[in-house]
Amino acid sequence: MTDGLLPLLVAVPVLAAVAPPLLCLRTTGTGWYVAAVACAVEAALAALVVRSVFLGGAVRHVVGGYERPYGIELVVDGLSAPVVALVAVVSLGVLAFAYTAGPRRNSFYSAYLLLVGGLMGVSVTGDLFNMFVFLEITGLATYALVAADRSGRSAVAALKYLILGTTGASLFLIGVGYAFVETGTLNMVDLSERLAGSYGDRAVLASFGFILVGLGLKTAVFPLHTWQPDAYSYAPDTVTTFISALVSTVAAYAVGRIVLTVFTPAFFEAVPAARAAVLAFAAVSILAGSALAAVQTEIKRMLTYSSVSQFGLVIAGFALVTSDAVLGAVVHLVGHGLMKGGLFAAAGVMAARHGARTVGDYARLGYRSPVVAGAVGIFGVALVGIPPSVGFLGKWYIAVGAVRAGAWPIAVVVFLSTLLTLSYVARLLERLYFAEPTEPTDPAVGAGTDADAGAGTGADADSEVGARDPDPVADGGARADSRAPAAVSTGMVAAIVAAAVVVVALGFATAPFEAFLERFLGGVFP
Amino acid sequence: MLESVPPFAPVLVAAVVAAVAPRRIGHAVGLLATAGVAVGSLLVAPGTHLPTALFGFETVLYRVDAFSRLMGVIFGLIGAAAVAYAHASDADARMTAAALGYVATSLGAVFAGDWLTLVFFWELMAVTSTLLVWQYGGAAVRTGFRYAVAHGIGGSLVLGAVVWQYAAAGSFLFEAATGVVGPVAPALMAVGIGVNVGFVGLHTWLPDTYPSPHVAASVFLCVYTTKTGVYAMFRAFPEGHLWIAYMGGAMAVFGAAMALLQEDMRRLLSYHIISQVGYMIAGVGIGTKLAASGAFGHVFNHILYKALLFMSIGVVIYRTGIEDITEVGGLWRVMPVTFVSYLLGAAAISGVPGFNGFVSKGIVIAEAHKSMKTLVIGSKSMPLGGEDLLWWLLIVGGVGTFMSFIKLGYYVFFHGEATIDPDDAEPGQAVPMLAVGGLCLALGLLPGTLFEVLPNTATVAEKYTTYTVPHVAESVALGVAGFAGFFALKGPLARATWIPDVDRLLNPAVFYGGRALVVGVTETFAAVDRAVVAVASAAVDVGRDPGRAAYRVVDRLPGLETAPRADGGRQTIDLRMSMGTSVFLVVAALTLALALLL
Question: What is the predicted ipTM?
Fold first, then answer.
């Protein structure tokens, strides 16, 4: 019965996305309500599907009754179910955040719903070309959302993302094309069967290389991450929260799906160089991302580089192709979405309340916004991987997988990444709670220390930011920071706290994750 | 009642009393306590008394069997004689207190029923004997320090062996295993005890220390440390050991040979301790019941005559203040009592028939005859070797003993006319000397009495007859060889006194080696410390301001530049990539991936 719901998962948000522009004819303030209804329906559908997967295993739907290899198949199995659940929950949560935080334009919610539809599509499709299509939908919607700040910088960031994202998608498409030429099918299961035995072919290898680089760009793995810092930094905080939690996550899920279902572990056994290359790619990303994060002074850029590092971990988990590592990768995928989304939301609240955009600005905010700062602490500590938290669980299983697979360099890198993560999280926490009390209006005090670059609250404090990022809105306007939420409601804070609670609670949720993955992994690892 | 008081307790009390009470009373109490121990050791019932827990382990504080009884009797007896002698020799009350503490700890060691208690008293013995040496002051401080170092090392080795023994046997008790077991413990134990008994090479502390303190202190020292070592060696290797037997033989020859070269009276006697202990160690090493009994008989007798010799020579030094044999001479006329007691002791140590040394040394030599069947150097029947190598060593040692005591006696009591006119021994010195000398003679004439004290009395009495023609002939031959040898070699021996012992090398080696070790360890630790501090402060710097650390790294990397900020603030690196660079990176990554895969 539930297999009929799969097309709805994609169709509901896409169709609903049409409504806000139409409503614009009459009113401009109703987009949020349309999105709320659509996301609620989406969440209900997702709940039903995930429950069905949990109880009965993979759910399949053959679109239009055309069986493979010609038809299109939608599948939710143990690997995609957690991602489906994450997309549904986060889109609902961010929507709640956006009610007060804005933007409230109808067009924004149209793009929002399109993005939800694209993300769901990538998660549930069982077809390689469909995956490309949904990735493009995701990408286009994201470009629009990044530009939603309507400032020059966000437009440039969106353009950069557009050019690079399209390049990445094109590479992915070329890879799919090679695979199609080699096998004559686009269905993932079919592909995996027909690829078996021809792993050494140049076309197959080229296909893998193109697909991986394309998805690596979408995931923002070092050194393909260059679009991400600008896109995340200059997008409105609501958008950053949303896309940081989901867009790269779904791209990383796509990597896992391609590696595990299409190319299968047998490919890695036949071509050890491929596995080594992906692992090296991931390891470099983990270390470089963490190191870059540690040297940032702006909060949003720091969190962005942190994502580069964390997705390196996820890719490493998938590429290790052991059941522990894959479990860890999925857990970290979900966990990172929640932690990073929560952190960006908290950053938005801090910017709205205190104008804090840099690490230095966070001095002693732990005493002025104790609840949000506490949540930041929880997310940060979870990101480092301190139990009990979902961050610990993911890293732990990836590390265990690395050790069991004998991939000692990866185990060492995971450990190092923990230290590097600690270096920037600790810096943030030190600022929040242990900074020396300073006179916020005295610019001389901050010179040469982290407490400089104070932004937002006054013209004098803004000079630092202004010198680096000429921002026409920042000076003299009614709102010092157009990216920050318009206001902070109790509901927004509650959403952040709820995310923090979930992050800690999922730290005890090994069993459900294992239950989800058990059947899927049983198929992958004979 | 006797079973409930471990012998070390009354002596320890006496030591405390001697330290605080007036000199006369202190010495009297010490005399009573040591004499009481000798009598008590004879009367106490055999068995384990006073099982207790030391440091949480099952231990026995007071264990009596034939071996420890013998040690107790002789330790108590000679303790009493030495206390009396010390009193007559104007020994300081504190010296006697230290000596009594030394006696007490030695008694604790020989009556211990387990290795832990033994090593506990063993270490205390090293401490109390060092105090006894140091108490004299002057040059004795330096020798005492070397003594302490040697015994610290030896004691540590024994302690290590005891720990290993516990790991192997599961208990410290002697009953838990036959001697020392396990792969490492025997070697550690042999070397550790070897320091105490003066194994060749480990012996340097002995002739170094014993001549340096008060003459009465020397009497105490010559008795307890080495003999406790022999006792412990027997406990560790009750079934003997080939290498230990040979080491005993080597000690017998080496000690006698070195003694021959000495001109310092007490130093000569000290080397002879090594030689005599060699006989005991050989007896323990041979491993037969009779040989062990002979070794312990030799312990008993040796304590008597060696203490007697130290007392006699002590009187000479006490009266003349001269320690060098070449500076005195012809004293037999002016010091007849001293001469007689020296003669008794020298005859006993040389094994002249009719003296106690003849009895016990005879047992060991007889057991050594044809004993070395397992390890034969050369062919079995080779002259001066083969199965009889040990026997020959002991015989040569016997000749050396004769020669060196002829030398000592000749130079001190004859050799020209007396140029000085010192008084003879004090009555308080003469009484213990003559008593001990009389005992040497009595036990030699009535060997059955000695056998009564020995372990395995029945075996000894059955298997060994003291006075047989070959035994006596052997002794006479040794004596003749000794006389002939000494007077033939008198000239060369007098010129060969420059020959050094290994301590000429060992002491600097230990000193500079120890200093190098200390400096090396200190410097290594300092280097590690500096490295750790540097890493820690670098980490603190990076953690405090990762940005600045990154800028500093960038400054050092070729090809990257940082630019000062326009507002004069901190330097900055622009991490923002242009779109062109980004696309280039994508293409480069793709190229790399394809190059790797294809």
Answer: 0.74
